[in-house]
Structures are given as C-alpha cells and as structure tokens.
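Notes from hallway chat w/ T.B., transcribed later so I don't forget. T.B. wanted the structure written out for a chain they're using in a teaching module, and asked if we could keep both sequence and structure tokens in one place. Agreed to drop them here.
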Amino acid sequence: MRFILTICFIVLSSAYLPSQDMKKKKISPKYEGSKSNYFSQRSQESLADRITKAERLKEKDPAGAVDLLEEILSESIQADDRYFEAESYRVLSAIHEAQDLRESAIQNGHKALTIFTELKKEDKMQEIHIRLASNYKALSNYSKAAYFYNSYYQWALKRKNGSATGKALMGLASISQAQGNKTEAINRYEQALKFLDKEKDGEDIAEVNQQLGELYENSQQKNRALEYYNNANEAALENNSKDILIKSNANISNVLRSEGKIMEELELHQKQLEASIESGDIENQSRENLAIGNVYLELEQPQEAIPYFIQSITLAEQSNTLENKSEALKSLSNAYRQQKAFEKSIKAFEKYVLTRDSLIAKKEKQISKQLKVNLSLTEKQKRIDLLEKDVELLTSEQLAREARLRTQRVVIYSLLLGLIVIGVSSWLVYKNAQKRRVANQLLALKSLRSQMNPHFIFNALNSVNSFISRNDEKSANKYLADFARLMRMVMENSQHDFVTLSNEIQLLQLYLSLEHFRFKEKFDFEFRVDEGLDTDKYLVPPMLIQPCIENAIWHGLRYKEQKGYLKVNIEAKGDGIEVCIEDNGIGRKKSTELKTMHQKTTVSTGIRNTEGRINLIRDVFGKKIEMHISDAFPGLEEVGTRVKIQITT
C-alpha cells in the first residue's frame, strides 16, 4: 500500500511538470519511411549493422540471432522506426524458415509485408512474397503459395528481371508438379529455363533441368530425361552445386540401368571418379567407388567389385561419411557372399550393422539438437509477441501523458487508471507465464511419453525381413500383426497422461512376448501380477515401465552366454503399487565394459526419458513416483539388475 501511495504522489507531482515529449528534435532519417525521433544517425547505422550480424548468425547460432533481433525490435518499436521493425520481422521469418518452423516464418513474414507495404518498399515486399510462397508450399497450402508466386512473377515481368521471372516460374511449376499436373509443370519449367539461360543463372538452371528430367522419367520418356539430367549435371559442375550433382548422377545411373545400358553406367561412374580425384573431393570419391562396385556386382563380377568397395569404405572413414560407409559394407558383404566367402561376408555384415547403429544414433542426436533449437526459438517468439503487447501498453501510456497537457484533472485520473491497468496487466502476465510453464511441461511430458526406442522398431522390422527372406510367411505375418497391435497401443496410450494399470499390463505383456519371440534362445520370462490387485483401480503413466524391461533384455540378457531369466512382478504396496523388474543378466558394470567407445558417451535414451518423465509428473501432477536401480545378485559373477518403481496413488 505504501508503494502504491508513493507512486500516486510521483504521478500527481509529475502532472505539474512541463512535458518533455514535445521538446524532442526531429532527426532526418537515413532510410526513407523511417520516422524515428529517438535514434541519432549513428544509432541507425548501428541498427543496420546489427541486422546484418543477425543475418550472418541465422544458420550458425539461430537462438543468438533471435536474441539480437528481439533487442532491435524492442528499440525500433519504442522509437516508431517502422523500417527496422519490418527488417527485424523479415530476418526472423528467414530464421524460422531455415529451422522448418513454417507457421512462425509465415506469421513474421506477414508482419514484415504489412509494414513494407505501408512504407512502399517494393523490393522488400517482393522478397517477402517469394518467402511466403515457399513457406505456404512447404505446408501444402498451394492456393496461397500460387498467389504469392504469381504476385512475384508479375513484379519480375514488370521489372524485366529474368532471374526473378525464372524463379517465380520455378515456384509455379513446382506447385503443378506437387499437384500431379505434369504437362503444366513441364511447360512452366521450360518457360523458366528460357529466362534463366539468358541470365546465366547456373544454380537455378541446374535445378530446373533436374526437375524436368524427373518429370520426363516419370512419363517414361527416358531419352528426354537423360538429356535434362546431363544438362543439370553440367550446370551443377560449373556452379559447384554438390547436391544437384549427386542427385543428377544418381538419376542418370538409374535411367541407364533401367535401359540395360550397364556399360555406359560403368563408364559414367569411372569418369565421375576421375573428376572427383582431380578436385580432391574425398566424399564423392567414396560414393563413386561404391557405385562402380555395385555395377560390377550387377554384372556378377564380385572379384572386380570388392576392391572398389574396400576403397569406398576407406574414403568414407576419411571423410567421416557414415552413410557411404554403411552402404559400402553392405555391398561388400553381398560381394563376398557371391564369392561364397561366407565368413568374410558375415564379418562385413556385422560391421555394417554397427555402422548403421552409429548412423541412427548420430541422426537421433541431430534430431534432439534440432528439437532443442526449435523449442528455444518458439519460446523466444512468444517473448517477442509479448513485447508487442507491452509496446501497445506503452503507446496507451504515452497518449495518457499527452492528454495531461489539455487538463491536469483528466491526466491525473488517466494516469491513476493507467497504474491500475499496469497492475492488472502485470498480474495477468504473471498468471499467463505460470500457465505457459505448465503448458510447456505438459508438452514436454507428452513428447517424452510418445517416444519409443527406434532401435526396437528398426530391429523388429529387420526380424520381419529375416522371416520373409527365409520364406517363413506365417511367422512374419504373426510377428508383424503383433508388432502393429503394439504400436497402435503405444500411440493410443501416448494421448493420455495416465492409463489404467490393466491397460499398461496388456501393453507390457505384448511387448515382452514380441521380444521373447525374437530372442527365444536368450531368455525366458515370468510376468506376475498380484491376484488381489485391482488393476482397473490404479492409474499409471503410460510407457513408464517398458524402457526398464527393454534395458534388461538389450543390456543385460542379450550379452549373457547362457540362457537368462527375466521376472516382472507387480503388487500392491502401501497406498500404491510396486513394479519390480529383475534379470540375471551380466549386470550394469559389465554391460558398460562391452559397449563401444561411442556407446559409452551416449546416455540410455529410455532411462533418461523415464527419469525426465518422473520429474515432470511430480512437478505437474504432484504424483509421487520413485525409481531405484540396483544389482539383483551381489557377489555373483553375473550380478543381474533389479529395478523397482513405486507409484503412490
């Protein structure tokens, strides 16, 4: 109360002071359309420099770039500098587009477009048009994408800008292609090519030729397709467009093979290998060695193929290209199998499996990193949205201060009312922040509970493949049906915060039966539920227990030389239930020793997710859940592992 009275006194006193707002000098803005009375010429240059810096940071450090733009946006809005406000939104849109956050990219793009339209900045408007078109196309909103591409096309024709006209036609052609209208797509791509050829816009020329090749190939016009693929190849070489070069080479190879021109395909890859050696492109050398080896394998000449596969593996290790190494090891295994060198074939295949696992782990890490960046950008975008609301509030306060010049009584009441509004707004912002925190926790919880170890999915599908390769159709069908049922249960349960214990038991029993079906020789299991336990009475978080069972099988029992045993026991305890997962496997310490160096640096995703979920469930729902992990049989050589999960209702 004392604080409020003090504020009121300051407000009443300030009512009698002459306004300084009207005494500010206007400064001639550097940029047309900039209305700043706040920044000096020097500070405007600083804003331009910071916009440039944010654009440079957008790929290497997108979160840092957004922080910088938030600062620029705050200053620009306070100063009513519309040009830099629009520039901030333009770069924000580009950052979100680069991170595949299309809806945020569109939101910021429209904000920039509105301001640039007010300022009549035609070039900037069209830059936003082409970005909005691209983002709407990525979201399959073809009508809006076509609208912005057409707008950009009309502007480019008016300006007689060949490159821009070609780019607009490329966009319109890609929409026709996506909608299955091949004839219209071909016509538009060929129109685009005419404009791009005049401008010598090499990278776009390569892309258009590539797309035309694919359209003609899909239409079974192989000769025309080859013509355009070769054009794309030449343009990509001239402009060092590596992605298009790789794609065009692969497409040319596929067409030649489908036409039975296998020797021409071999000659193509040998020329590409020579070019890669001359340019010092180790990654492409690995890829071309692999392609040549595969051609020889197709010709049933494994003795010729094997040296190329070995060279491809060596080069892939030098360039740290796991994809090439994985494919080369797989092909090498097939080559040895053709030679009936089965021991070498098995060793190569084992290396392939390990490399494939490393590749999957690497991709998981990349996806996790990308998710963190995207979550960070989403949070920062919310902060920017709040900034705009705060600025609107600030504007209303400025209007109240100007009213003070007309009548002090109105000013006093207006400012007191403003204080009340600020207090209420602050309280609302605080409450909204609390709601957002809970919402974010619920979102994180939903994300964690919907995850299932991709290794299980990958290996399960490999099991189906092995049944099929052995012509064991019955086993393959049964396993696939049970696997589909399990995935359906996982997806259904992941929609809920809690499921009944009986529902979760069904899922666990199905999962265990699937794993036992695959590893019958590795372990037997016992799944016991206390007979007096009312499983429909208790609610448990879905997929909380499964990762512990999976760890017991994959890290404890799978490496055991003798057949192991897994016991799952569920019983009532106190005010809740206790789940005990016990195995007589090799134990945690020995399992860690058997891991590769890469695996040692990787924390178990299942256990990490389980611990994270337990913490979130405590915070959000106040539910008490404890998990304890210990050796099951201390003193024995194979100590096993015991996991106890206690859930209190």
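Follow-up for T.B.: The chain has 25 helices and seven strands. Might be a good example for the class.
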